[in-house]
Design brief:
Radius of gyration: 12 Å
Mean pLDDT: 93
Number of helices: 3
Bound molecules: zinc ion
CATH class: Alpha Beta
Strand order of the largest sheet: 4-3-5
Largest sheet: 3 strands, antiparallel
Oligomer: single chain
Distance between the termini: 27 Å
Order of helices and strands: EEEEEHHH
CATH superfamily: YlxR-like
Length: 86
């Protein structure tokens, strides 16, 4: 199976794209948060387009925290944005 063809939806703008076009954020049962986790890290995940607008929108009204069921973290948005610079 070609993993790159797996389609996911952006949690901010609802666009459908293949998985490798997104920033993936996963929270496991121990509430550990990983940005762009490897395939061995399981949990509740959110996919966001690799652009500033979608990152900004997913943080509006704390949407991302509700989706991932985690506490707000002031550094979180910055950490996700850092993925764009890679
Ligand atoms: Zn998007």
């Amino acid at each position: 199976m070609d993993e790159k063809k797996i389609i996911r939806k952006c949690a901010a703008c609802n666009v459908l794209k293949s998985r490798d076009n997104f920033i993936k954020i996963t929270v496991n049962k121990a509430k550990e948060i990983k940005i762009m986790p490897d395939s061995k890290f399981f949990g509740r995940s959110v996919y966001i387009c690799k652009n500033n607008d979608c990152i900004k929108n997913i943080f509006k009204k704390g949407r991302i925290y509700k989706i991932l069921r985690i506490k707000p973290d002031t550094m979180f948005e910055e950490k996700i944005r850092a993925v764009l610079e890679k």
